[in-house]
Amino acid sequence: MGANTSSLLSEEIEEIARESNLSARDIKSLYKRFQKLDRSKSGVLSADDLTMIPELAMNPLVPRVTALLHNTNFRQFVNFLGVLSPNAQKSAKIDFAYRIYDVDGDGVINASDLQTILRMMVGDNLKDETLDEITEMIISNADLDGDKVINRSEFETALNTEDVVNLMTVSTF
Amino acid sequence: MEVVEQVAAEPAEKQEAEVEQPVLEETEPPELERFTRKDTLEHVTALISKVVDLPDDMLSGVIFGDEYDRQEIQQVIENATYNLVTPKIPLDLNLALPTFGGAMEDIVQDSFNKCFEAHLPVPWNWNAYLLPAYLLGIFVRYFVLFPIRLTILIWSIIAFLVISTINRKIEKDEQKAIEKDRKLMWYLANAWIMALGGVIQYSGVAPTTGAKQVYVSNHTSIIDYVVLLGAQTFAVVGQHHPQPLAFFQDVVLKCLSCIWFDRKELKDRGLVRNRIQEHVNRADVAPLLIFPEGTCVNNHYTVMFKKGAFELDAEVCPVTLKYNNIFVDAFWDTRNVSFLRYLFELLTSWALICDVTFLERQKIQPGETPVEFAQRVQTLISDVGGLEATQFNGYFKHIRADKKFIAQRQKETAQTMLRSLKLQKTLGDEKVKKIALKKTSVGKQSLTRRNV
User: Fold this and answer.
1) What is the per-residue pLDDT for A17?
2) CB–CB contact B96 A53 (8 Å)
3) Residues of A in contact with B394 (CB under 8 A)
4) What is the pLDDT of residues B175-191, one digit of tens each?
5) Which residues, numbered 99 to 128 in chain B, qualify as contacts with chain A under a Cβ-Cβ cut-off of 8 Å?
6) Do A61 and B109 touch (CB under 8 A)?
7) Which residue has the higher pLDDT, A154 or B48?
8) How many angstroms separate the CA of residue A87 from the nearest CA in chain B?
9) In which family does this protein belong, per the annotation (chain B) (predicted)?
10) Residue B418 — φ and ψ, nearest 5°?
């Protein structure tokens, strides 16, 4: 028996490791993880595969997570998670956090992006007005140039980067 | 997180206090540390100043009751207390990051699936001295032990079926025939244990027959049942498997009146419950054995004990099964390994080592709910086996976790956000920023540390 990494060649592992910030060992364990999560053995992870992790299925942000990870093959999976490595660049981690909020993918965080995230987090428990109020407050606190959206540099200024780096790091793969 | 745990623990403490009250009345009341009014106020002020920067003269107002706006002070204290006792969700761009970070951690490695991870053997044989010994071992295991054991396995089943059939022809009394079958079953189980190379140590309170008792045990594999049958015959409640296991379930185990069901057929549930209670009420059948986890766990953890076995009108007899996986991992990873493959692994290993401990009988305590009772027994079993008790629902191995858990978290988040909003409005942005600076950094909100 032993770790079933037979279908992943060692050159491939090295190549993937070079692309990401992970060691060959991390890649091997992520490969095992990927195979386990890919219940249909289709070679890509679907939203249905991911939500079979009970703790993830209980996470309010699961629609956002699955949207970011939907139909990823192993290489994309590694690239996605590589950012979480302790060795990854600080700026890459902040980019990653920024991408979470940029729901429509237009490069800036606007009010509707934030509202989508907030709605996921609170469900139907807060009124639209309350969400508007919170959204406005968050934007006005971080918006330095007054264009009602938060760009990448405003994002970095508004946050304690140390915290972001900690939150976007997974210690063991 | 600490705060959440404290809140969760509160009802239990209250209950204890209620139970212990009569005892307290007999003893002297404990000497209380007396605080003067000034001490108390100073204490409160110190607490507040930990989270809010108040002007000094305002603090003295709190202490000495100067002419300050009482309402304002009260508001500040209230908000500061909220801030201390609730896990705060910052109303800034940090908002979603802890929850998202938790999700990422769960994707890389989640603690639920840890309970079902098979133990991978560590290679030890790549050594010039050990390799010949290893190869000799391979020869003995696969070409000597395996054929002998397979022969024992097959012939014991044939012998059982033949003797049982003859027995039924001779013995006209139905009840006596069943009793003889049960005796025979015990021999069969021990033949199987021999075939599996079982080194089983039974200890603790000897099991008995009779009504109004149900045996509950942690669950690692289908072999658990064989191991326990070696001590005494039990009827078991379990999932009906496809062939070849269906043959054992329907033909060989017939005399034990086991209760089989299909996990996917949820409408069976009420029916199963009634049949369980009926079985437990009867003294003329083998006592019932239930695996309350409802699924095989890797023998390092236990998952949530379902309450079904704990709301019967019966005493609960806990049993711990602890396997030693030095030669073979007893855990049957049903998702990845077929039964025959698993059986082959067992038959070709040197030995299957297991400690079986029968614990003291347990009754539901007054005021205890079946769920609490189930948890208590889970802890007892886990402690004896050195297993880590978790509160995961084992069925999540097969079905997706319910959306109601998200709804619950959303509700909590909404409440906290409202409080934060109120706080932010009362104090203004500058003060809130100061609070945020004083706050230690926000941790990831993974569900792993929560009691779900």
Assistant:
1) 81
2) no
3) none
4) 888 888 888 999 999 99
5) 99-113, 120-121, 123
6) no
7) A154
8) 16
9) Belongs to the 1-acyl-sn-glycerol-3-phosphate acyltransferase family.
10) -60, -40
The minimum CA-CA distance between A36 and chain B, rounded to whole Å, is 9
CATH number at A10-88: 1.10.238.10
* CB-based contacts of B198, cutoff 8 Å, min separation 6: B192, B227, B230, B351, B352, B354
Q: What is the share, in percent, of chain B residues with pLDDT greater than 90?
A: 34
Name the CATH architecture for the domain at A89-173: Orthogonal Bundle (1.10)
Percent of chain B past pLDDT 70, that is, above it, reads 73
Beta bridge partners of B50: none
What ranges do the domains of chain A cover?
10-88, 89-173
Q: Which of B95, B413, B446 sits opposite A55 (nearest CB)?
A: B446
Q: What is the mean pLDDT of chain B?
A: 78
Structure tokens given for A88: 């990854």
The predicted pLDDT at position B426 comes to 65
What pLDDT is attached to residue B45? 62
Chain B contact set for A84 (CB, 8 A) = 104, 108
Greater confidence (B79 vs A79) lies with: A79
Name the pTM for this structure: 0.71
pLDDT, mean of residues B129-140? 87
* B436 has pLDDT over 80: no
Which residue do the tokens 């069901």 mark?
A: B261
Q: Which amino acid is residue B102, in one-letter code?
A: G
DSSP, residue by residue, B213-257: EEEEE--S-THHHHHHHTTS--EEEEEPP-TTHHHHHHTGGGGGT
Among the partner residues A57, A84, A158, nearest to B104 by beta-carbon distance? A84
The average pLDDT across B193-210 equals: 92
**Measured between beta carbons, which residues in chain A are less than 8 angstroms from residue B111?**
55
Q: Between B110, B407, B415, which is nearest A55 by CB?
A: B110
Between residues B431 and A11, the one the model is more confident about: A11
- Can you tell me whether residue A91 is helix, strand or coil? helix
Nearest to A141 among B123, B400, B429 (CB): B429
Task: Mutation target for B interface from A98, A167, A169: give the one with most B CBs within 10 A.
Answer: A167
State the complex-level ipTM: 0.90
Question: What pLDDT was estimated at residue B302?
Answer: 94
CA distance linking residue B180 with residue B163, whole number of Å: 10
Q: In whole angstroms, what is the distance from residue A51 CA to residue A56 CA? A: 6
Q: Which of B95, B401, B407 sits opposite A123 (nearest CB)?
A: B407
Q: Which residues of B touch A58 (CB under 8 A)?
A: 401, 405-406, 409, 447, 452
Give phi and psi for B192, each to the nearest 5.
Answer: -65, -45
Mean pLDDT over residues A91-101, rounded? Answer: 91
The answer to whether the A10-88 and A89-173 domains have the same CATH topology is yes
> Is the per-residue pLDDT at A73 higher than 70?
yes
